Amino acid sequence: MEIAKNQTPEEGHPLSFSHGSSWASFPGSADGDDADLAELMKLLGKVPDRRKRKGRVYSLAFLLAASLIAVLAGASNFRQIADQVADLPASLLRKIGGRWCWFCGFFRVPDTSTIRRALENVDVAKLEGLIGPWLLRHARPIPGGTLRLAIDGKVLRGSWIGDHESFTLFSAMIHCDGVTVAQVAVPSGTNEITQVKTLLDGVSRGVDGRVVVTMDAVHTQRETAEYIAGERGFDYVMTVKGNQAALKKKIYDHTLPFLRKAPHHVVVDDTHGRIRRWTTWITDADGIDFPHARSVACVKREEKNPLRRTRQQRARLDHHQPEHHHSHRRRPTRPSPRPLGNRKQKPSRP
Known about the structure:
Elements: H1 38-44, H2 60-72, H3 78-86, H4 90-95, E1 99-101, E2 106-108, H5 112-120, H6 124-139, E3 146-161, E4 165-174, E5 180-185, H7 196-200, E6 210-215, H8 222-231, E7 235-240, H9 245-255, E8 265-269, E9 275-284, E10 295-304, E11 309-318, E12 328-330
Parallel strand pairs: 3-6, 6-7, 8-12
Antiparallel strand pairs: 1-2, 3-4, 4-5, 7-11, 8-9, 9-10, 10-11
């Protein structure tokens, strides 16, 4: 009888096995060996574990890391997370702190109920406070470069608070990369307008970097502009629509003389069987009474398809001063920022 020499000192007493030919799932496997997860595991280890000590089999850091990998692999519910974790290679399970079973000869994996109970009991605020800065630090490619963030709130599908109120998440996402670097839950009885300070408090501009925050028309508020530009020193780009009727009229009147001239910027997109064109005129914000506004713009949107042709005009406020140059681009990825054009804005209270 051939005795296998594969042993691991991680747990219990070392044992020998007589089925060395079936040892393909041992932690020495090549799968996952190139993944450096030490920093991530150290970060997840800071999340407080609210579970009782009695009956714990898996550490919270392991459950969070395994669930994260499963979601990245396409899992969308607790059962799918458990299925994905069960299929993870042994080398990866070892890296994220999996528990080795000496008698079965493989790593133990949590079932659906274990994952569900652990994730439902996580301190979400603490986890978000750790993950956001970590993602921001790793997603920012150039130290001291410009960080472009889009903030927006979305109702979480299939969730609710109480009988009739939906659950809303308010997030800050990096343009182009699509990485969410900050996220808060909108408290019951309020809206996302009141949560801008809470959302952006954890966002740092770096040593000498610049941060530009874009948002839809619902956030075109004087208090928001004062916090972003005045208190934090960031730049903002705000869309002005019907919820700020007086401000929109002032900007339109201010930019009206320029609409007869050549535009400063043109974007054309001819994908999806239609032609969309964004034409922009930009000028200074002299005479516009809005905190820290340096420039204003009028954006004209035209869309052609075989059935109809639509035209829309939007006003925009900028805290930074853009360069006035003529440009023409075709087939952009997506114009930024993209306001919620289909959502009717309610007039703000005086």
